[in-house]
Fold:
Amino acid sequence: MLSETFKALATEAEFTKEMLGSGATQIRKANYATKGVYFQAFTSLSTGLERIGKLCLMLDHFIDHGGKFPDSEYMRTKIGHNIVVIYDESAAIVTKRLISMRFSQSLGGPVHQAILKTLSDFAQGDRYSNINLVVGAKRQSDPIATWFKEVDEPLFNTCVSTKKKESIGINAAAVAAILTPHAIVRHTSETGSEIKYVEDASYRTGMQRAVAPYRQLYVLQIIRYWVELLFSLQDAAVQTGTEDIPFFSDVFRPFYNCDSYIKTRKTWDTV
Structure:
């Protein structure tokens, strides 16, 4: 008979996989005209990354403490919803256990770190930034603006070719020439500035489409990091002779793939 611990961990893994898959799918779709999709993606990703990271911390404690999991006080007060702290603790586990990662040994790159920080801040309060502004509460950061400045712009500058950027500009100018006499644009950008011109709106649409595959790739690389760490800790935990640890590798296997495969998929919510 399966133990209650086994069933709880298996259910947690399935839920986490679905949240990560949904977030990885939605982050590819979000743009200035669909800001709600950003919040869908941020909610799913911050929840999923927090949970898979905590599974890793729990297994590490389980291995080191004779089959005992950490208490709730540790998980609530020391770790909480801080994804950056969860990553730092996870990186320490990799070092402590001399784990050789197949794909990425760390998530130390500036874009990976910016994604972790944005999602961590979102989980800890930025998700209420609009409500906080309206009711006069202390407002932290606008998560969409932060993502645009710290993730999308660097990706656009470094990953998108000069030829592609020129093409986006030419297309935006052509669309403006056709539609400007007949169209009115009323939008706000990711950073909150007003978009009043067709050319600006068209250029931002082209920019989002060019950046979308890269933002999804980087998010999936972060997911894969914790998946790989979880697999390693799962094996070590099972070797202790316990029957409380499910095979997480069966649940998260779709995320454990090389970049060339990851780039071929646009949707991850049905993996």
In short: The two ends are 28 Å apart (CA to CA). The beta strands are 187-188, 194-195.
